[in-house]
Design brief:
By secondary structure, the chain is α/β, with parallel strands linked by helices. It has helices at 44-51, 76-79, 88-94, 100-105, 122-134, 150-162, 180-195, 231-234, 237-244, and strands at 6-15, 18-28, 34-37, 65-68, 83-86, 168-172, 199-204, 216-221, 224-230, 250-253, 256-259.
């Protein structure tokens, strides 16, 4: 467990003339539950895309690296056995006329849906059903994802990421487009996953998304790490006012933090 799950060292990402991430350095341990919090446009989602290899750091004269479990180079199919990524981009791609069971099962193949050239084994089907039961969505097995609510489809997408049994999940704005009930249900599911030993890394701009199990917060502002530490020290009015650029009041209730 001494090798970090994720390690960024002096990472800069540039798109066109704009620098999205600026000399970011951070390390997240295996088994750790962490929230990465910041306003829209601060670079949070870009950080996820660097992990998923959709974007690459800028080559610079000074040392710079992105390591996952101590390695800089991964075959993406191998990486899925260790790290599952749930993003809004995948949400759009997977909300189609495929059943919930097909979408979860397709996680084994890195596809959206099951294709003719896929060989589905009984073990795969059993694992997909076990994951759906864990996420309390087994009743959605035969329903098409484009007929589901946003909350139901989000859990189907999490199931797709879990079929490989990864040790960690990265969740990019997981409550985006969810209503109050679906948001509360998703939080309870995430707490259930944390209790089952799955490390959670959540990228969000919404303070109440941070479940009690997440003890550490990394605050991002203008593409840089603004603060990094225990949430009790960082989720305070004066600090969050500086991150979001407005005056806010923070309250804590039952392990969750809210902004007034």
């Amino acid at each position: 467990m001494s090798v970090p799950l994720l390690h960024f060292d002096n990472v800069t990402v540039q798109r066109g003339a704009r620098v999205i991430l600026d000399q970011v350095s951070l390390s997240i341990a295996q088994g750790e539950h962490v929230a990465i919090l910041g306003p829209n446009g601060s670079g949070k989602s870009t950080l996820v895309k660097v992990v998923s290899r959709e974007l690459y750091p800028l080559l610079k004269p000074e040392p710079s690296s992105v390591q996952i479990l101590g390695r800089e180079r991964w075959h993406l199919f191998d990486l899925r056995n260790y790290l599952g990524i749930v993003s809004n981009d995948w949400m759009e791609m997977c909300t189609r006329d495929y059943s919930g069971f097909e979408i979860v099962l397709s996680g084994f193949f890195g596809s959206v849906g099951i294709w003719r050239n896929h060989t589905v084994t009984a073990e795969m089907e059993q694992k997909a059903l076990e994951v759906m039961t864990l996420l309390e969505i087994e009743h959605l097995a035969d329903q098409n994802t484009d007929e589901m609510s946003s909350g139901e489809a989000r859990r189907i997408l999490i199931g797709r990421a879990l079929v490989h049994g990864p040790q960690a999940l990265i969740l990019d704005e997981p409550t985006n487009s969810l209503d109050l009930r679906a948001t509360c249900e998703l939080r309870e599911i995430l707490r259930k996953l944390a209790a089952n030993g799955i490390s959670l890394i959540m990228v969000t701009h919404h303070l109440p998304d941070i479940i009690p199990e997440m003890k550490r917060v990394i605050l991002i502002r203008n593409g840089r790490v603004f603060c990094d530490g225990p949430k009790e020290q960082l989720l305070r009015s004066e600090i969050l006012s500086g991150v979001f650029g407005i005056t806010v009041e923070v309250i804590e209730r039952n392990g969750y933090y809210h902004v007034l």
